[in-house]
Amino acid sequence: MNKQKWIDRALELGLESFEIYQSLTSERSVTWYEGKLDTFTTSKVLGTSIRGVYQKKMANMAFEKIEDDQMDAVLQALIEQAKTISSKEEDKIRTPQPFESVHKPTKWVVPDVEQVKEVLKQLESKLKAYDPRILQVNELGYQEASGKRMITNSLGLDVEDEERMQIIMAYVVAGENNDVQVNYEVEVVEDLSTLDLDAFVKKVCDKAIEKLNAASMTSQTLPVIFETEAMTSLFSAFTGLWNGELLYKGISCLKDKWNEKIFSEKITIEDDPRNVEALTIANFDDEGCPTRKKVLVKDGVFVQALHSTKSASCMQTESTGNGFKSGYASTIGVSPMNCCIVPGEKSLQQLEETMKNGLVITDLQGLHAGIDFVTTNFSLQASGYLVKDGKRDRSVTLITVAGNFMDLMKKVEQVGSDLDWSYHQIKSPSIYFKECAVSGE
Amino acid sequence: MLTKEQCEVILSRCMQSEADFAELFEEDTISEGISMLNGDVEEMNRVVRAGIGIRLYKGVQSVYGYTNELDQNTIFALVDDLKSALGTSNREVTIRLTESVIENHHPIVKNPIEASLEEKVALLKRAYKAAKEADDRIVKVTGSLSSVRQKVQISTSEGKFVKDTRTRVRMPITAFAQDASSMQSGSDSPGASQGLEFFDQTTPESIGKEAARTALVLLEAKDCPSGKMPVVIDNGFGGVIFHEACGHSLEATSVAKNQSVFTGKLNEKIASDCVTAIDDGTIPGAWGSENIDDEGNPQVKRVLIKDGVLQSYMIDRLNARRMHMESTGSGRRQSYKFEPTSRMSNTYIAPGKDSFEDLFAGIQKGLYAKKMGGGSVNPQTGEFNFAVNEGYMIENGKITYPVKGASLIGNGKDILMNIDKVSNNLERAQGMCGSASGSIPVDVGQPAIRVSSITVGGTANE
Fold first, then answer.
1. Any coiled-coil ranges, and where (chain A) (predicted)?
2. Mean pLDDT calculated for residue range B328-344
3. Which residue from A134, A183, B269, B418 puts its CA 20 to 30 A from A163's CA?
4. CATH 3.30.2290.10 correct for B4-220
5. Per 3-state DSSP, what percentage of chain B is helix, strand, and coil (rounded to 5)?
């Protein structure tokens, strides 16, 4: 694709501005099962999306195969699309802005397939030998992905970046007395040769074994700690509350709560795409807007929303550099990146000791269905364990936790210190709440 | 698309290795989405996807690669990369393909990809108008019209060469109702393997009105109480209970590796006598139908459970090898970027003999789940959950008041045994199912059923 030719022709045909976004991704994965290579997957995909403004309306298209001789037909179709758009909101292609880049210090060491196979083989043996209650290793694998992002537009923007990721994952089944429980863990690995296999095996297996012999509990309202993974799931489902587009459309319930106290004063929320502690970083968003750190909630007060160029323009403000796509072919939406509830000072164990008697929720299921974003009501399948006199007691499964997210976040007793970004882009530490409704038997 | 001769060359190169089977899946897809807010077209996107997925087997080992760079050098490099993972060999193999022409059971009248933007926008506006005018309390309506045309070409080292075109349309509409105390939303999102003629039968007005009706009911709804109780689950999307709680556990993906509660249970009684369950990929024009699966096998009707007894799993080619059984034509994938595996198509519980009213008789306190949301299941443990979008309390055999915030949880193997009444009003509804081989269109369905006891999670303080 001759990008300059496309830009020149787009302007000639009457588009006011024009942008080309490309992503090139390569992936490789290996899975291992019962002593043998199970699957090997490799891929290379180039995606191109174009967008242009015609009579102040933005139109979008995306392609996996595109040739320069299609240029006129494609650009005409783009103009036809723009003519059909009737909403009043204005969207713009961005003028370049200077920015300083930060870089993650990660030094990826890329393993060859034989090395991956050897590590997976050792891991499988160690997982199976860890405890007689580990019945099966359902999934064991390694994945690596690298991607390049390139944005060029008719206003002089020309930026690109690259990222890489390597992970291992394991999914084990534990069983005892006719009860079966599972656990799935993912770990980012910079260098496979220095991975502490025993520590990973212990983490995977211990969590599965701890869940065994779980039973339901009677329905009640009681003090609850959402352990970091469960709290991360719940928080992730509601980060749309700060989405400028949903605020503008009146779908986020924070729409008329600017500078009001919405949560307990123990809650502060930040979004920082440049946080090098996090899994990945972005110095600019998918519109080429420089990113920055924002405080969304300060001591319980709602102070800042997230914006793309379009949502910012609708609300007469500036983009926060949160205009991201959900894949090269999607249109620009508003997304958090490296967004977290700021951790407190107490460990999970200290939270349990303070709570004395209550429930710790370690796992939530059904988040794509059991959440009503508009009302922030949730009713979710959960599992975890009871705490008695500050100590871990029996495991609990097949219960639901239900409530209203806005109400729950007012009942914070303590925020934990256990914020580990691991492979997340949205994260919360464990949080101890005064009470939450649980349904069981 | 690659020619038959080009496919023969690539497949021959694949088989010059230790592989005992090779498959090419090529795809050329155009999808389009038009989204509307309050009657104005807000956004539009048209995406052209084209690429190839190549798969090699050696016994039950599988290597898979995909690319959208369709020049010979890139494809050959990909093939060589795959072969090196399995083991190369110098044996001379020449693959010859024979094209099988398949009958199209899902003909399209008005091609949505070629239809004018004006025509599609007009359909969306009709849905908006019907929702908005349903009641003064409807304050906002969002909606979209999505169309997709996927052309696929599948060839294998066994000589198969087959093509299919899948065309689908869907219109999800969400209405927001507001009164002094709260805002609630309601949705409806029917779709089909049809062209725009689908909206002649399922009119945009009916979709808009249904979304508005649900939102308005929820304005009046009270918090749902919790605990174990009998639940009547209505027809249509109520079938998501079978899909989540049992369907996924009957897919070979989990059965073959002994990861399902139903592994080794063929010909055993796994459900109550009144349950017969079917997965049918052949229903003309249905959302989850196709002429062939994504491994090139003709779609068929599969009886999974008959009168409570397990008859069949849903099996793809690779898991058929693991299970020493035949494929049931259940290999599906989102696109060439996914290796196919066993998946559902249009899955439903067959109609029974009870009338709808019979289901409520004798219930002192229970829940009527009229409209279900989505859910999920862990096939290994059988534990499932799903959300009730529109529910009502049943008191002394009568429907009394609407409730919100309910979810149902339980274990698939228990729930199948606890279905004690099945009515005769079978209906299907559309959904997107996410699993190992991506997100694919499926129908779920059932007549109204009664489950004698299920855990309801609710928000009411009692």
1. none
2. 97
3. A183
4. yes
5. 20, 45, 35
pLDDT along chain A (441 residues), means of 10: 96 97 96 91 94 94 92 95 90 94 92 94 97 94 96 97 95 90 92 95 95 89 96 96 95 94 98 94 97 98 97 95 95 96 97 97 86 88 94 91 94 96 91 93 78
Q: Do B385 and A366 touch (CB under 8 A)?
A: yes
Beta-carbon neighbour count of residue B264 at 10 Å? 9
Within 10 A of A389 (CB to CB), how many other CB atoms are there? 8
Q: Would residue B360 be called left, alpha or beta, if left means φ above 0 and alpha means ψ between -120 and 50 degrees?
A: alpha
- Which A positions 136-195 lie with beta carbon below 8 A of chain B? 136, 138, 173, 180-182
Which pairs count as long-range contacts for B104-109, CB under 8 Å and 24+ apart, including other chains?
B104/B165, B104/B291, B105/B282, B105/B284, B105/B289, B105/B291, B106/B166, B106/B167, B106/B193, B106/B194, B106/B284, B106/B285, B106/B289, B106/B290, B106/B291, B108/B167, B108/B194, B108/B195, B108/B197, B109/B194, B109/B195, B109/B196, B109/B197
- Asked whether the beta carbons of B177 and B208 are under 8 A apart, the reply is no
Q: Which residues in chain A (15-74) have CB-CB distances under 8 A to chain B?
A: 33, 36-47, 59-66
pLDDT at B462 over 60: no
Q: Are A216 and B455 in contact (CB under 8 A)?
A: yes
Chain B residue nearest residue A113, CA to CA: B85
Instruction: Using CB atoms, pick whichever of A41, A250, A439 lies closest to residue B456.
Output: A439
Residues from chain B contacting residue A33 (CB–CB below 8 Å)? 257
pTM above 0.80, yes or no: yes
pLDDT of the residue at B279: 98
Point out the residue among A365, A374, A439 whose CB comes nearest to the CB of B226: A439
Residues of B in contact with A368 (CB under 8 A): 374, 376
DSSP string covering B246-266? IIGGGBHHHHTTT-STTTT-T
pLDDT digits (tens, 9 = 90+) for A404-424: 999 999 999 999 999 988 788
Name the amino acid, one letter, at A27.
Answer: E
Residue in A40, A331, A365 nearest the CB of B85: A40
Q: In chain B, which segments carry CATH 3.30.2290.10?
A: 4-220
Shortest alpha-carbon distance between residue B353 and chain A (Å): 31
Cβ contact B302:B257 at 8 Å: no
Please report, for residues A113, A128, A139, A195, the alpha-carbon distance to residue A33 in angstroms, rounded to integers and kept in the order given: 15, 12, 7, 20
Minimal C-alpha gap between A286 and chain B (Å): 16
DSSP for residue B357: G
Q: A215 touching B, CB under 8 A?
A: no
A362 token code pair: 């370690």
Residue B409, token pair as written in the block? 């949880």
Residue of A nearest to B261 (CA): A180
How does pLDDT run across B205-256, given as a tens digit for each residue? 999 999 999 999 999 999 888 889 999 999 999 999 899 888 999 999 989 9
pLDDT at residue number A412: 97
Structure tokens given for B279: 């997965």
Residue B243 has what DSSP assignment?
A: I
Residue B90 CB coordination number (10 Å): 6
Q: Which value does ipTM take for this structure?
A: 0.85
If phi > 0 it is left, if psi is from -120 to 50 it is alpha, else beta; for residue A263 that is beta
Residue that is written with structure tokens 């409704």 in the block: A437
Question: Which of the residues B35, B45, B144, B377 would you substitute to probe the A interface, choosing the one with the greatest number of A C-beta atoms within 10 Å?
Answer: B45
**Which tokens sit at A337?**
């990146």
